[in-house]
Amino acid sequence: MNSGFFRLTLTILAALGGALPACAQEIAIDLDPAQTTIRFTLEATMHTVHGSFRMRNGGVGFNRATGSVIGSVVIDATSGETGNRKRDRNMHRDVLMSERYPEITFTLTRIVGTVALHGESSVQVEGVLRLLGNDHPITLPVKVQANVGELHATTHFTVPYVAWGLKNPSTFLLHVADKVELDIVAAGRWGTVVR
Q1: Which terminus of the chain is more exposed, N or C, with fewer CB under 10 A?
Q2: pLDDT tens sequence across 133-183
Q3: Per-residue three-class SS string for 130-161
Q4: Angle at the Cα of 10 from the Cα atoms of 193 and 58, rounded to 5 degrees
Q5: d(Cα 85, Cα 7) in Å, to the nearest integer?
Q6: Which SS3 state, helix, strand or coil, does residue 35 take?
Q7: Nearest alpha carbon to residue 96 among 141, 40, 20
């Protein structure tokens, strides 16, 4: 789906929704890249590597009653950085191959649990993570804080990148873990549609 068209659709749905009535079931969320952080942690010999990515865009439309959902979060693979130029160059060239695969996309397929219109809630978000052109089903535990017109969501999950076919950058002297930990804090605006 064209991301510009999807964002326009979400904006229209949000505008139609108004002030989040308590009976509303269909929710539209437009995530804000400027307020979203994506950080990763990779254990290595005698130290831990910390890094980050930037989100390009993201939007979600879902039904609170059924858990049905459409939407995606697109991460800019070329934005990955750890603060070490040589390590970053190797990461992009040998592991992420970001010149060939500039995007990492999480496409949502289902939400298990109920997102509260106000206050905190915890849900499981099922979807498919596309990495290096390959799709990997994954379920993310997501904590949501909702206020009028705003939503913040956080998740922590593990990506078994070596099992998924990515190269392990370990060398003879430096060994790194075959899994990477990700922490995402996303923020956005939302509206509802009552049919």
Answers
A1: C
A2: 999 999 999 999 998 789 999 999 999 999 999 999 888 778 999 999 999
A3: EECCEEEEEEEEEEEEEECCEEEEEEEEEECC
A4: 130
A5: 34
A6: helix
A7: 40
